[in-house]
Amino acid sequence: MGARPRLWRESRVALDTAALLRSPTWLARDIAQGDGRPVLLIPGFLAGDDSLGLMTAWLRRNGYWTKRAGIRSNVDCSNAVIGRISDRLDEMAQFHGGKVAVIGQSRGGTLARVLAVRRPDLVAGIVTLGSPLLDPLAVHPIVRAQVYAVGLLGTLGVPGMFKASCWHGSCCKTFVGDLQAAFPGDVGFVSVYSRNDGIVRWESCLDPAAEQVEVPSSHCGMAANSNTFDAVAAALTAFRGVEDEPAPDHRLAA
């Protein structure tokens, strides 16, 4: 699917960050008024919650109520991770009394898509950043080797890491099916991608169910790029009508 990503493009992460911190998007305080609306952020492969620290700080400064996914390094079994994130989503929805917007970078975006398919009653919309939604292994060979290395370690018994069976066996068969399933029509979906992505083949980000937004950034720098922040602000504004719908109170059902 397309040409191999050019890994050297990831060297521009510092430039993306420096440009963001000088941009009107970062400095302004009225570009994305959150009014306390909830946003859940999910980091990418090998990354932890801190990788989305700039975006978290910006969202909070603009009035959003954010919660991290609770991930130190996103290398665990997809089914295990999605279960824990789903619990956080439920807690946020119950506390807020409405649906939650979800932002996921790279692998975090694939988790966000599955979360929306499984819990459309709790998800107002998702924004995926450089996420290989059509083929999770459509990445640079060096990164694919890292995926296989984690799978090998997990298979050998290292705790907290996914196993080879998570993708090729029955372990995550349901997860893979949900990743490929039809996306709920009443849940917002924006896929942000870059042709300058040095890790993910950008074509794999073009999920037909999503509104696709192109930004001029590297893969890792996508969470520190002013154009990405503008896209996120627009998406969260578009999700507002859905967020105001009350989330089901499962405690009453129990």
Please provide a written account of the structure.
By secondary structure, the chain is of the alpha/beta class. Helices cover 40% and strands 13% of the residues. The chain contains 11 helices and 6 strands. It has helices at residues 13-22, 24-27, 53-61, 78-96, 107-118, 141-155, 165-168, 173-180, 226-238, 240-243, 250-253, and strands at 38-42, 65-68, 100-105, 123-129, 188-193, 211-214. It has a 6-stranded parallel beta sheet, sandwiched between helices. Helix 5 (107-118) links the parallel strand 3 (100-105) and strand 4 (123-129). The relative contact order is 0.19. The model is unreliable at 250-254 (pLDDT under 50).
What are the salient characteristics of this protein?
254 residues; 40% helix; 6 strands; alpha/beta; 11 helices; disordered C terminus
What is the C-alpha radius of gyration, as a whole number of Å? 17 Å
Helix-strand string: HHEHEHEHEHHHEEHHH
Share in helix: 40-55%
| Low confidence ranges | 250-254
How much of the polypeptide forms β-strand, as a percent range? 5-15%
Query: Which secondary-structure class do the elements indicate?
Result: alpha/beta
Largest sheet: 6 strands, parallel
Please tell me the overall pLDDT: 87
Number of helices: 11
**Which overall shape is indicated by the principal axes computed on the Cα atoms?**
globular
How many beta-strand runs? 6
Strand order of the largest sheet: 2-1-3-4-5-6
Cα(first) to Cα(last) distance is 47 Å
